[in-house]
Specification:
Blueprint: H1 11-24, H2 31-34, E1 35-43, E2 46-48, H3 51-64, E3 69-81, E4 84-96, E5 110-122, E6 125-133, H4 135-142, H5 146-159, H6 185-199, H7 205-209, E7 215-218, E8 222-225, H8 227-241, E9 244-254, E10 262-271
Parallel strand pairs: 1-6
Antiparallel strand pairs: 1-2, 3-4, 4-5, 5-6, 7-8, 9-10
Amino acid sequence: MSATELEFADITDFILRITKRIWEERHVEDIRKYYTADCRVETPAGITSNVEAVIQSTLETLNQFPDRQLLGEDVIWSEDQPDYFYSSHRIFSTMTHLGEGNFGKRTGEKIGVRTIADCAVYKNQIYDEWLVRDHAAILSDIGLLLQDFALTLVEARSEMGQKPIHFHSLENRPNADGLHLSDRDSAQHYLWGYRNLFDESAFGWVTESYDRAAQICAPGGVTLQGWDMITDFWLGLRASLGQVKFTADHLIHREDPREPERLALRWTVTGQHEGRGRYGEPRG
């Protein structure tokens, strides 16, 4: 970050410190400091465009999970233009279901769940955020049905006049937004591979691009290891969706000292539940 923003050492420090301060130290009021007033936040539940909605969502989550800890596993970032940063923050949270909210009445169950938060940052303020939390893992731990919860999300988006799935793509936004797709060869290789998984059903790419002992953290808090399990996951997802459109939203490539190459790809697939696969009988 620039010399005028010495509160934080760099963008990684910014993301990790404000996350801990807001969630674990309960300085919820700092959201007004570190988010713009018209910050746009997109989640599977919908889209909001003001900082007060961010605060309300945070309060409701803390009410349900007051002991939540957010363990930052990695922050992959890029400075796409001077002072315009984009970060992809992978978090593992431990928490207990102690309050009532959108996950129903308290159950007292212990929960472990991953979240990906992608943030666009300018001068120490987040102005765009895309947040995906593994709700399937939460539902599994507290004993609720995934299908019922998913339908409530779809209905909620419909009531707000939003499409069931309409993630905000940056692929064609002007460069002035400070957001980009990395053109590094390794980054483009994986972008091409994921695109072809959906567009061409090219599942042979898994054995070409994953290590034989690779692990992936899949929805539902499930860990998959090896080519067969990873291929079955992608095939089951693809089989459920019929005709789809894959969009690459943002792609970061990083090479840091004492670290392996790291990539952060945010992508969107739009389609309808037209096939029998990971999600059972088609619902359209």
